[in-house]
Amino acid sequence: MAGSVFGNHFKISTWGESHGKALGVVIDGVPAGLPLCEEDIQIFLNRRKPGQSKFTTARAEGDLVEILSGVFEGKTTGTPLSLMVKNADQHSKDYSNIMDKFRPGHADFGFFEKYGFRDYRGGGRSSGRETIGRVAAGAVASKILGEMGISLCAYTKSVGPVEISTFDKAEISQNDLYMPDAKAAQKARAYLDECISNQDSAGGVVECVISGVPAGVGEPVFEKLDAKLAQGILSIGAVKGFEIGDGFLASKSKGSENNDAFVSKDGKITKKTNHSGGVLGGISDGSDIVFRAAFKPTPSISQPQETVNEKGENLSIEIHGRHDPIIVPRAVVVVESMAAVVLLDEMIENMSSQLSFLKEFYS
Amino acid sequence: MAGSVFGNHFKISTWGESHGKALGVVIDGVPAGLPLCEEDIQIFLNRRKPGQSKFTTARAEGDLVEILSGVFEGKTTGTPLSLMVKNADQHSKDYSNIMDKFRPGHADFGFFEKYGFRDYRGGGRSSGRETIGRVAAGAVASKILGEMGISLCAYTKSVGPVEISTFDKAEISQNDLYMPDAKAAQKARAYLDECISNQDSAGGVVECVISGVPAGVGEPVFEKLDAKLAQGILSIGAVKGFEIGDGFLASKSKGSENNDAFVSKDGKITKKTNHSGGVLGGISDGSDIVFRAAFKPTPSISQPQETVNEKGENLSIEIHGRHDPIIVPRAVVVVESMAAVVLLDEMIENMSSQLSFLKEFYS
Amino acid sequence: MAGSVFGNHFKISTWGESHGKALGVVIDGVPAGLPLCEEDIQIFLNRRKPGQSKFTTARAEGDLVEILSGVFEGKTTGTPLSLMVKNADQHSKDYSNIMDKFRPGHADFGFFEKYGFRDYRGGGRSSGRETIGRVAAGAVASKILGEMGISLCAYTKSVGPVEISTFDKAEISQNDLYMPDAKAAQKARAYLDECISNQDSAGGVVECVISGVPAGVGEPVFEKLDAKLAQGILSIGAVKGFEIGDGFLASKSKGSENNDAFVSKDGKITKKTNHSGGVLGGISDGSDIVFRAAFKPTPSISQPQETVNEKGENLSIEIHGRHDPIIVPRAVVVVESMAAVVLLDEMIENMSSQLSFLKEFYS
Amino acid sequence: MAGSVFGNHFKISTWGESHGKALGVVIDGVPAGLPLCEEDIQIFLNRRKPGQSKFTTARAEGDLVEILSGVFEGKTTGTPLSLMVKNADQHSKDYSNIMDKFRPGHADFGFFEKYGFRDYRGGGRSSGRETIGRVAAGAVASKILGEMGISLCAYTKSVGPVEISTFDKAEISQNDLYMPDAKAAQKARAYLDECISNQDSAGGVVECVISGVPAGVGEPVFEKLDAKLAQGILSIGAVKGFEIGDGFLASKSKGSENNDAFVSKDGKITKKTNHSGGVLGGISDGSDIVFRAAFKPTPSISQPQETVNEKGENLSIEIHGRHDPIIVPRAVVVVESMAAVVLLDEMIENMSSQLSFLKEFYS
């Protein structure tokens, strides 16, 4: 349980470091019969690929995925899917001047204390490149969910203090910040330019909407759908907050405002509002699932910062090299991927919630 | 994995419904040799007991815990600890008029869709009484953490729009809202009185500070310390948001502001600030761990609300009976308990992170 | 993972010691809608109850089960089932003269080394009474399996050197040794009388046949159906061996003899023989599942034995009190119960093996 | 939990098919600081490599392992170790004539029923090549155990009816059957020559001895050391039986014979005999751990056999191509590897069994 395995049914084991030979994921529990090719996964990986705009790192990696096992004649076989992306472009020397210093805002100190030493080349396992395995798994989960009519849509809700005020779904893929509001994107770009010129960085908020989930998914108590989403999302590097539905605002609201009225129309029960964000008591209520993740600003900045080295000496550090001034745009697909993995896992779990389902299955 | 088992090492299995015979928890993985008696657990349970003020329900239950197994001659034996609290006061008839209606803001509809029928008496498993098992487990985890110099302190940070502006630890247990600011507590009481008179309810925010955790605890990737805290906390009924350190505010901050400088003094490495909330890259950094949970307003209100019954008919519902106008004060100990369970679990996991630890253990 | 939780879907957490207040099990993952009452479980518990013949201990406990949670209006709700049996008859003093001595053939020494001290009263958690939780869970699993047309039948195949040579199912419940061969039972009784008169004890073999399991159940690689059965069965105290189908005999056989020919008749594929014992490559093949468990002789004998005490002094021990000269007859229902728990768990797992099953479920 | 992940702490996820691109394993939970290079793993893989004698298949694969992640500057980092072996030699056409027929004694029928279709090229995931991942993981586990003074030694105890009658450890690696008795090996070779000339195959028994395990390892109830060994060993293809210590013979023994007397000498407690096989009540007792695995004869034989095809037609099958007439010699290292994985996992688990261990660790 050292932390790189996730899921009870659709179980993913990710591996790999930023400067190792390759990164990847093994997925155990992929149902048999899913048509799957490398292109299905590549589309997702391309969304997190660096070098897409001036706001993302210039590493020119192709990040091409290979399917090593689990697919036969174009379909999943039910046995483990092994997906690998080779590391093509390794500039280890960029990091050599910081090798014994603990970068502020990074996991360096924690890794050193935990393991006694650490891979100082760009974060090793705590690098953002670790998310390659998550996104590859998310591509598979999303394809399966798609077969059941479920779609996920994540986007940048805010960049630093700049928040969207309109929502145009088509716009999301039109701008390099993945914001559904072109004007907000323009302002955000100006904000980021300023950050860059100040050798500084920015954070932001990613929002995700999941449509098509039937009511009844999620387990009571510890495996609540929103609790597992929270774990999945907070497990993404740099995420410092998670909220579902009205989230923190709900704490200021009154019961009469926050409760969503149920209404029945044409034999279908829905809710008049969606303050709940699609989850009540940990179980999906049939409305869209809506949650947000707060990302802190990129910790790697080229301004001089105070820190300490492994010998315990106080000194200054300047982090040069290729770093995103904001990771939010590239994190959008990571959030969507983790949500897909969590949701699929809970949907499989739900298949045995009634005895009548078992009896029908085995009749 | 139906959701009532939590933890990899200190593994808790909770059980019981609001109107069943009893509730409890089985804890597998309690280390042997801990002095433990019922009083140790009762102290925690008393903090969540109803009937303590006009803002909490009037159910007069004693909620007395019994240790059924796992303790011999006053010490834990290393085998499962079974803890039980009998349900003394069951007013089932209070709920009979709502038995086929889906209460807004509750899990009724989700349970019905998931299981095909449901225990309509006060929520059954989705009732707040479910937390008895969590709190009993949390009492044990806290005692073990205490033996290692770790202490947890949770309190009410805000009630509806009323937030604390000072922090006086001694004050927490002095007021019935568990707020560390007497003046804020007074304002909060006025706000709650207004809610009650309007047949309405309020939410709030609980904050928790954990002191004494050494750096290095938490697993990279999916079992990050904050990710598991997020799951644990979101798994508490009515929680809609979680944040650690600066949380959502960090998304508006800049890297130069959000990064905490490391500093070395007298051979000890600390941080000048604690924007991280004590966790970097999912691993404890040696500072206090600070997180917040947003609770929505109690969904049970006596105002008429629109809803639907099991037949799909639109109608109105009024929920009478004993309900807290706010659950936050009673949830304080639940938040603290879940945090203790998560932290202890990760601390045990961390014991095998280095080969040298294994070699020393088995030498 | 301290060892008292078992199963991935139908997850059981057992607890309790021989001389504590009570023993029990919490089952998470019981599908909703199963009609269940205490009598369903009591029937199973009665089969393992002591005091049924001179070959079993004279403890007169009723071992009456209570359902504490998880059933509403006579049906399972989908939430945890908590089952408890109180310990009525505790003769602690019987054990006081052996409290610091390690009984040969028992877990005393291992427990002492592991935990630093131990419950010396009759074995504590390593007592045969621990199986109460398993049997209660097995009763529930068996009832669910029965709803799907699956039945389990375990019986005593041999007592010491006395093996059955005929098979009469009706005879099993007719003799106190649960042997399906009345003549063998008679010989076995004579053998046991001899053991008793020599202050000695005997072992034996339990065989279990499971009928009605469709082909395709079991997961490849580590969660093979027979591998999980092996874990489940070896986890029963005193079991020293497990074999499926021809078992150890298969190692002496030739491929041409051991392979079972497939044959198709009236659209149904079966096997001409069943050397495999119903499992091929870890997956059920549609034939009866047949396995055996070897039980060692009861380690508690009243003959003087050499041993060591906690101080490391060599000395002699005589174990008096109420002990079965053979545990096999009472273990028959334990074997059947564990097999039911394992099989049900794998049958639930199998429900998500094909994408088409998910699509059908959520359509 | 689709079955390709094993272990709670030293958690292995194996992947790959006999005729895919590659096979491998991801190991999460490798303690940091272990010196590790590819040669450490290659030594183990070479022991299971085909083409070593006329009794093993002639596939000329190199089976060269690559370390893809988890090692930095020659030492494990504490993050996942990804190990891969490419499939070099794929003669798919050898299998084309049997693609729609269910081979007797194989998992073909079960896979077809479970997944709706199957990889017909040499068994896919149910092929013996699947064990590459296990052996690679076992090499790592064995190296860690070696650092703690624990050694494992597996060997062929019998081939068909030919059993060893002497034990010469040095002889094991001297003969191509891995038998510790040169004379028995000679007889076994004659027996296998006869099998080959009759287009038939043989089974056998592998025995494994683990030395140096301290008392106290293993968890009570379901995670007993022998129960987990049984799962691990039965999960190896073709294993039909497992026994520890006297195993099935113990069922015919008497308590006075089977109990091992404890004896104290020079402050060390040992046992006079080892009928228990080093495990009592599921916990190691300080003696050598001794267990056996029964392997059935290779199911692939070139004699004509009756079977059925996917359309349900009765017909005959002849399986040509490269098949071992016995898999036992190549399985020796697989048994040893699985035992190492299980034992290491339980040894890590045991580190938190006493509160005093936690306190010492975190002081």
Describe the structure.
- Four copies of one chain form a homotetramer.
- Chain A has a single domain, classed as Chorismate synthase, AroC fold.
- In chain A, a hairpin with a 2-residue loop joins strand 14 (279-280) and strand 15 (283-284).
- In chain A, helix 1 crosses helix 7.
- In chain A, the strands form six sheets. Chain A has a five-stranded antiparallel sheet, covered by helices on one side. Chain A has a five-stranded antiparallel sheet with strand order 9-8-10-16-11.
- By secondary structure, chain A is an alpha+beta fold.
- Chain A contains eight helices and 18 strands.
- The longest helix of chain A has 22 residues, at 328-349.
- The first copy, chain A, has helices at 38-48, 108-115, 131-147, 182-197, 225-234, 255-258, 328-349, 355-361; strands spanning 5-6, 11-16, 22-28, 65-69, 71-72, 75-76, 81-86, 151-159, 162-163, 204-211, 239-244, 262-265, 268-271, 279-280, 283-284, 289-295, 305-308, 314-317.
- At the A-D interface, strand 2, strand 3, strand 4 and strand 7 of A face strand 2, strand 3, strand 4 and strand 7 of D.
